[in-house]
């Protein structure tokens, strides 16, 4: 049956054949395909032949369409845009992006939830990721931030525990993306350092109206280093021009049911109708001496730097004006990493940041199938790039010519790229000395003061929302001792908050305020250990 005009049985309607300028459907090897409706068979009703290379080419590729989802921040939505420098900072940082006022740098941003899987709903009560990739002329700079300026934990070694506790419980596989479960509240109530973050998570910040109405924060203290090698600390802020907006919890529940894609649809639609969302980049810049005057440690990611003490200086704006051409190629395959910094910016010794610098690259090696994911267009720098790294899975930009090492004796033509002390990255020469030890600095010890400051800075309605959120979430916790332990922490934050939550949960009398030290396993009465097993 080689006549293309003749029907070939089921699916054999041939009104979609290539004619004129339409491109011809091919296999992955480029071979034109005559019939994409029927597999090759031994007789019209016989078995499909293993020989059918066209069928195998197609199904083989389909079988491998899925890659593993991100271990956290699996559900996200990205868009392209640009960053415009509105203030030059040549006296503060040698970063090329801050040298020329008015210059635009291409950017890609991915917003996300943290705990839910890829198919979860947009309006879960959760932190939102706010990851920005800036394709600068001197390399890619990623600010991998969140919409909340503090974090749950102080040391990256606790990250796997935090995420295990926040994601679905391992025996039952639910709840998928809710803070409302025993494991989560068990863990955080045993980690007093999470108290400040919990106040933010129970606030309206954790149920934003859309990605367009959120702030973003780099969270950690970073360094800015100028041409003379002088360094200052910096915290990065994204301030939405649209303002801050959240939904009510009842609205969040309804929206999740009616349209779990609410946030991604909102961003897509806004950009498509030309209503481009915009953020200002702000910096809190302070030097080492100033940092020492704070009553907390600037290396502790559970603390903010109060804006009254260090005002936010606006230095640029970020505009998102283009949706992706392909969700998988761009939003799924983009690889942000805290270690992607450029000359003029440097790390601080924040132990959470130091751990993140290892984790992102490590996980992406697996998620994106090998060490060459920087060759993908979404991850590749948009500035010249020359190095001697080669081979591995999917190598797409191996060095050309003879030299793949240096030093070498080959001339300018054949010798390949050379190092450049003038242009190159230099680490800030911070002095470090100390005894090797597993330790948490005593300057990280105050877990309640900023949580209290956050609570009392809220309006009456916002405070009521926090009380309602704690009561709702803890009412889903089945183990009485965990609820009580949380109330004992709230007593260290604000008496009225603790009393209100306790009343709604029917906890009477109030427990003793928590010991600031970490509670132990023995704090859980035997009866509650049993009820964990039962529920
Ligand atoms: C992913 C932010 C802490 C490990 C992400 C993403 C964001 C983010 C925004 C999503 C990136 C994207 O859209 O592709 C943060 C912030 C943190 C924090 C603001 C604390 C201040 C940590 C820590 C670790 C970690 C402590 C581990 C030690 C990861 C991993 C991914 C991720 C493994 C998945 C990356 C991928 O598959 O591409 N984080 N994170 N994060 N984060 Fe974090």
From TrEMBL:
Composition skew (Basic and acidic residues), residue ranges: 1-16
Keyword flag Heme: yes
Hydrolase keyword on record: no
EC number(s) from the headed UniProt entry: 1.11.1.6
Domain Catalase core per the UniProt entry, residue ranges: 26-414
Stretch list, region Disordered: 1-42
UniProt keywords, alphabetically: Heme, Hydrogen peroxide, Iron, Metal-binding, Oxidoreductase, Peroxidase
UniProt biased composition (Polar residues): 17-40
Cofactor(s) needed: heme
Active site location: 73, 146
Catalytic reaction annotation: 2 H2O2 = O2 + 2 H2O
Class of the enzyme per the UniProt entry, highest EC level: oxidoreductase
Gene Ontology annotations of biological process type: hydrogen peroxide catabolic process; response to oxidative stress
GO cellular component: cytosol
Binding site for heme: 70, 110, 159, 356, 360, 367
GO molecular function, one term: catalase activity
Similarity-based family: Belongs to the catalase family. HPII subfamily.
Function comment: Decomposes hydrogen peroxide into water and oxygen; serves to protect cells from the toxic effects of hydrogen peroxide.
Protein name: Catalase
Organism, as annotated: Methylophaga nitratireducenticrescens
Residues of the full protein shown: 4 to 538 of 691
């Amino acid at each position: 049956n080689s006549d293309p005009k003749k029907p070939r049985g089921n699916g054999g309607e041939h009104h979609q054949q290539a004619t004129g300028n339409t491109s011809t459907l091919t296999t992955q090897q480029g071979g034109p395909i005559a019939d994409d409706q029927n597999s090759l068979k031994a007789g019209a009703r016989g078995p499909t032949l293993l020989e059918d290379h066209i069928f195998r080419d197609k199904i083989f590729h389909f079988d491998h369409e899925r890659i593993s989802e991100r271990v956290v921040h699996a559900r996200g939505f990205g868009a392209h845009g640009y960053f415009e420098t509105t203030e030059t900072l040549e006296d503060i940082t040698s970063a090329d992006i801050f040298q020329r006022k008015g210059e635009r740098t291409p950017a890609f941003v991915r917003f996300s939830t943290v705990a839910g899987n890829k198919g979860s709903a947009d309006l879960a009560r959760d932190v939102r990721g706010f990851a920005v990739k800036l394709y600068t002329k001197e390399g890619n700079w990623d600010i991998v931030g969140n919409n909340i300026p503090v974090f749950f934990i102080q040391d990256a070694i606790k990250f796997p525990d935090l995420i295990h506790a926040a994601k679905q419980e391992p025996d039952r596989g639910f709840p998928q993306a809710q803070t409302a479960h025993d494991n989560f509240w068990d863990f955080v109530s045993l980690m007093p350092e999470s108290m400040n973050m919990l106040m933010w998570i129970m606030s309206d910040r954790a149920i934003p109206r859309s990605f367009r109405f959120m702030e973003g924060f780099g969270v950690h203290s970073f360094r800015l280093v100028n041409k003379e090698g002088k360094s200052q600390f910096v915290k990065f802020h994204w301030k939405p021009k649209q303002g801050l907006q959240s939904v009510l919890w009842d609205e969040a529940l309804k929206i999740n049911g009616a349209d779990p894609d609410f946030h991604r649809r909102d961003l897509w639609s806004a950009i498509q109708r030309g209503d481009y969302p915009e953020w200002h980049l702000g910096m809190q810049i302070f030097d080492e001496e100033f940092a020492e005057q704070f009553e907390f440690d600037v290396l502790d990611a559970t603390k903010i730097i109060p804006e009254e003490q260090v005002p936010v200086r606006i230095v640029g704006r970020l505009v998102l004006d283009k949706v992706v051409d392909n969700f998988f190629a761009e939003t799924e395959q983009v690889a942000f990493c805290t270690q992607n910094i450029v000359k003029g910016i440097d790390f601080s010794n924040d132990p959470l940041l130091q751990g993140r610098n290892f984790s992102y690259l490590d996980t992406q090696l697996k998620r994106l199938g090998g060490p060459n994911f920087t060759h993908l267009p979404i991850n590749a720098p948009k500035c010249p790039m020359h190095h001697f790294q080669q081979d591995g899975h999917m190598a797409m930009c191996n060095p050309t010519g003879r030299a793949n090492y240096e030093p070498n004796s080959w001339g300018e033509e054949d010798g390949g790229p050379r190092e450049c002390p003038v242009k190159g990255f230099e680490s800030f020469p911070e002095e470090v000395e100390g005894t090797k030890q597993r330790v948490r600095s005593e300057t990280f010890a105050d877990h309640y003061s900023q949580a209290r400051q956050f609570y009392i800075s809220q309006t009456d309605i916002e405070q009521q929302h926090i009380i309602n959120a704690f009561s709702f979430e803890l009412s889903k916790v089945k183990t009485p001792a965990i609820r009580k332990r949380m109330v004992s922490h709230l007593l260290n934050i604000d008496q009225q908050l603790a009393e209100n939550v306790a009343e709604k949960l029917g906890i009477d009398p109030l427990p003793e305020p928590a010991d600031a030290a970490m509670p132990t396993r023995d704090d859980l009465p035997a009866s509650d250990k049993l009820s964990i097993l039962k529920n």
